[in-house]
Amino acid sequence: MAKAIRMSRTGGPEVMEYVDVEVGAPGPGEATVRHEAIGLNFIDVYFRTGLYPQPLPAGLGQEGAGVVEAVGEGVSHVRVGDRVAYAGRPNGAYAQLRNMPASLLVKLPDAIGSDTAAAMMLQGMTVQYLLHSAAPVKKGDTILFHAAAGGVGLIACQWARAMGVNLIGTAGSDEKVALALKHGATHAINYNTENFTERVREITGGKGVSTVFDSIGKDTFIGSLDCLRPRGMMVSFGNASGPVANFSLGELASRGSLYLTRPALGNYTATRADLEACAQSLFDVVERGAVRIDINQRYNLADVGQAHSDLEARRTTGSTILLP
Question: What homologous superfamily is domain 139-262 in, according to CATH?
Answer without folding.
Answer: NAD(P)-binding Rossmann-like Domain (3.40.50.720)
